[in-house]
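Allow me, if you will, to draw on your knowledge of protein folds for a short while. I have a record of one protein: its chain in single-letter code and its fold written as discrete structure tokens. Could you please explain, in whatever detail you think fit, how the structure tokens follow from the sequence? The record follows directly beneath this note:
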Amino acid sequence: MATNFSQADEEFSNILADTTIQRVVFDVRGNQLRQVITGTKTHETFSFPSKRWRRTLTGETAMELLLTKYAEAVPTVLDFNPQPCRVEGEIGGEKHIALPDFAMVEKGCAPILGEVKRDRTQFERASALRQKALTMKAAELLGWEYRQITGEAFGTLDYRENLDEVAAHRFAHIPIRQEQAAARALRERGQMTIADLAEAMGETASRGQALICALMVRRLASIDLRVPLGARSRVRRAPSLPFAFPRIRL
């Protein structure tokens, strides 16, 4: 029988009260601390070459891959690092280690240290409660926020498919003249359809859509991903980036 929320909450409160952090270890180069692609895994893994972050990111579940695509596509994501650190601590006097799933900072928000799972029930297991306690205390120590993300956070199937589409075109080559034409059109008109912006770039709607997806990864355009992606999808200029933002690579 699955643990109900009141039981899980009570158990977690007891675990959290008995949790102390000894240290939080980051990669000295600021990269992903744990590389999960070893050739010996018997469960699902992935390797994701990132255009935005200029490195290959790895992970272990479909939900981690979905979060990776979100961080690749959404212009307000300022920095993202999967499995960024190792949290070493004690729970009830016994040594434990946690490996948070991600660190991320979005525009206007505090950095997040968090975990991602398919649904809430996966966060209720005994091992998950210990992981949560260690990660939450580590986030507090760093002055960050702790967050649990499930599939519900990514909304509709349309939104997820749109993330796939944008990420799929992340390496599309955009000639400078077309990039400049797109930037000028969005600056002058504020909002356009993909078809109209493609025309302003001198492209057909289909190829233009691919290039506009690539512009989104480059934080030059922002497509409305809430409806199915197509010629009539709305595009705006991506929000400007802040001059400085909190670091997640310590």
In short: The helical segments are 5-17, 62-73, 126-142, 157-168, 176-189, 194-200, 205-217. The mean pLDDT is 92. Residues 22 and 130 are 15 Å apart (CA to CA). The radius of gyration is 20 Å.
